[in-house]
Structures are given as structure tokens and as C-alpha cells.
Amino acid sequence: MDMRLSMKLSQRLIMTPMLQQAIKLLPMTRLELVSAIRQEMEENPFLEEQAPEEDTQEVEAQAEAEARGEAEDPQGFEEETTVTPQAEQTKKEEMDWDSYFQEEAYEGGTGEGFQEKPSLENTLRSGESLYDHLLWQLNVTVLDPKMNDIGQVIIADIDEDGYFKAPLEEVAEQAGANVEDVKKVLELVKGFDPTGVGAADMKESLLLQAQALEPDDPILREMIMGHLEDLSERNYARIAKSLGVDVERVMEVVEFIRCLDPAPGRTFSPENAHYVVPDLYLVKMDDDYQVLLNDDGVPRLKLNPYYRNILKGKEGVQDSTKEFVENKFRAAEWLIKSIEQRRQTMLKVGRSLVKFQRGFLDNGMSHLKPLVLKDVAEDIGMHESTISRVTRNKYIHTPQGIFELKFFFHSGVNSYLGNMVSSVRVKEMIRKVITEEDPKKPLTDDHIVKLLETQDVRIARRTVTKYRKELKVPPASKRKRIY
Hints:
Layout: H1 17-25, H2 30-43, E1 47-49, H3 53-72, H4 85-93, H5 97-105, H6 120-123, H7 130-141, H8 145-156, H9 168-175, H10 179-190, H11 202-213, H12 218-226, H13 228-232, H14 236-243, H15 247-258, E2 280-285, E3 288-293, E4 301-303, H16 305-312, H17 319-356, H18 358-363, H19 373-380, H20 384-390, E5 395-398, E6 401-404, E7 412-414, E8 420-422, H21 423-435, H22 445-453, H23 461-470, H24 476-479
Parallel strand pairs: 2-5
Antiparallel strand pairs: 1-4, 2-3, 5-6, 7-8
Helix pairs in contact: 1-17, 7-8, 8-9, 8-10, 9-10, 11-12, 14-15, 16-17, 19-20, 22-23
């Protein structure tokens, strides 16, 4: 055994900081990217937002004009001040903002009668919650402080569906009252708006709504109390025989029950609708699709020239300061390159999807082809994991609507004809067939298989059953409507 020095050449994958940052930015949505960029701009002095193109062109034109003026006046004579039409217009548009805000804040432009305007947060209106709606009714209905306290405890225990499932003993212990008083207040709460709130379950909630709308209909109450299971099974004949009425009467009550709300509290949900903002746009120009990236709101970054000059000047700069500036400079460069790499990758993926799914874009769901990540990865020369990150939580606007990028990636179904059929396409065909069926004679899975064969799609019955369950469509026995 001996010791000696040797050189070895090898290749290995190293996660550099730039690669880590690029991978981190890929799965981000547009709003997450904007938030990450804003945070980095606060921490890194090298980064600053680039001015709009018009302002940039104006600055460059002004710099060129100044350079030409210095070249034409080499002797250093004093230049004559010239006012351009743009400068005149800008000067006219200038305002005394201090006086403007004083006039807005004070009545009559004086210091008397000051009225402070509310902040923007206080001017925004939020939706009324179920708790606030019930509490308002309690305060105008129950004036007794003790009973009002019990009502507040009851309302606090009502869930978002409008049901009250807490034990009365716990409410009584929490409010410091007896169970009888809790029952009295609970009965009052059950009479509040929306009708059906405060019930223990769906059956009681439907019963409260039925009593408020049709108080003189005993058949309606009996069907809700004892025949909800038969209604779910569509055993209308059994219900008619049990109640001693004809089937037509049962169908009238069924149609009325369908108009009731099984979750009355949902109408006061304070949640606002979140609209999808697509990350990519497909615009058809002539006979080709152009892929456009949605950069609205995303800051365009550039390097601050002041700190770049500090980095160039080596004299008079401490080592610690120089090291800090160099690290921030590298981080800023990496971020700008990573953002641009993310943009180019998304555009490549969008163009590849157009290439594979051109039939869907032109003709709709019936022409959607099976596609996997590997196909797009091989088309644009990237790894499958990169494609997976890029398509995560991102949407694309197409002539057929707005879809998630993951929507285009799905497996295919082996048809008896030897070709691959998109699983999404088969589901859409099954849904369309069931929608157009006769409700008195619903199609079984075997019948659906035969109908699909007429459309050149031959699949097994178990595949139809599987997709029907994924579409949450009940079997033919549950869909049958005899009357």
C-alpha cells in the first residue's frame, strides 16, 4: 500500500443555485411569481423594475439629444434653454398636489370642518356571513339579556350548512342556563331566515321549509318524515301505496321537495368567487395558432446601474462590502435568467400542445388525442419532470375555452379497432349519450357499449362502468323515471 496523487475526470449532476432557483420558479403561478419578484426586489438592491417601453424610448432619445448637444458645443458655451412642446404640455399638466389634497380633505378649502376620509380597506364591502345574519335577527327579536346570551351560543354552534348539531346540555353549561331555556331559544332560531336553519339534520331542515311553504299539506310532511329513502330509490309506487294516494300525487310532492334547499346556510357563504386568469393565450391568425404569454402585472427587471458601478470600482471598497455586492449581483442575474428561462419553457410547452392537439383546438372535445408528458418532453427536448412542473396550476385560453395545462395530458383507451382513444373523449361521449337518453328507458352499460361502437369506439363494458362512476352518473336503475 502506498499514497500517491492522481487526477480523475468524471461527470455528475450538481444542483447549482441558479438551477435550484429555476426549478423553484417553474411551478409558480403568475400571482406567486409576482409576489416572489416583489420580495426579491425588496431584498436585493441590484434589482429594479424596468420602465415601460415608451418611457424608455423617451429617456434614450433625451440622452442621445444631450450627447449630440455636447458634441456640437465643444467650446463649453452656455446652451440656450429650449422648451419642447412635450415639456410645455407636461408643465401645464403639473398641479399643486398639496393644495389639491387640502381642498379635498377640508370643506371649502379651509382648516375648519375637517373630515377625514376612510381608508380604502374600510370602503370595501364584504359579504354578510350566516353568523352575522342570524345574530342581527336575534338582537332585534330577543331582548332578554339572558336569553340573548343563550341565542348567541346557539348561533355560534351552527355550521356553514345551517345545521345545529351541538348537544343541548353543552350549550346550557356554556351559557349558564337550563336546558328548557335553551330549547325555547332554539325554537326561536329555527324561525329565523333562511328557512330551515337551526335544524339537526337534513330531514328536519326540509320539514321546516315544508311547514313554512305548505303548512296544510300532510302528504308532504309524511313523505319527508318517513319516505326519503324511498325517494332516493325512486320507489314511487311503494310510497303511493303506503300513503294511500295515486302516483301522480306523489310526483307532485316530489317536484316540490326538489325545490327545497338541503343546506340553507350555504346562501350566506362569505367566500368570493375566484376567477381563473390564464397564463397562456392561443390566438388563431390565418391558419396557425400563436402562443402568447400573459405577462400582465409581472415586473420587468433590470440591474441597477448605480450598484453596477460600485461593483466595477475596486478601489476604496471594503472586502466585506464587495463580497456582499457580488453575491447580490449574482443573485439578481440568476433571477432574471431564471424568469426568462421560465417564459421560454412555457412558450415551448404551449407550442407543443398546439402541435399535438390541433384537432381539439379546431373541432372540439371529440377530437382530443391521448397525450403523456413523455411526448411533449421528447418534442421540446426537456425532461418529463420539467414539463410536469411547468404545467402545474397553470391555465391556457383556447378557442374551446379555458383549460388547465394538465387537462391535455391523459391516458388513452385501447379500442378493439386497434387505435388509441382519449379517455377524456370517451367520458364526454358517455356523458352525451346519457344526457340524450329517454328517462323512461335509460341506457344500460351494455347499450352504451353498442352505441359507442357505432362511433368507431369499441371498449369493454367494465370500462364504461368505470367512466360512468367517475362522471358520478348513477346506473340505469337509478336513472329510470317511470312517471
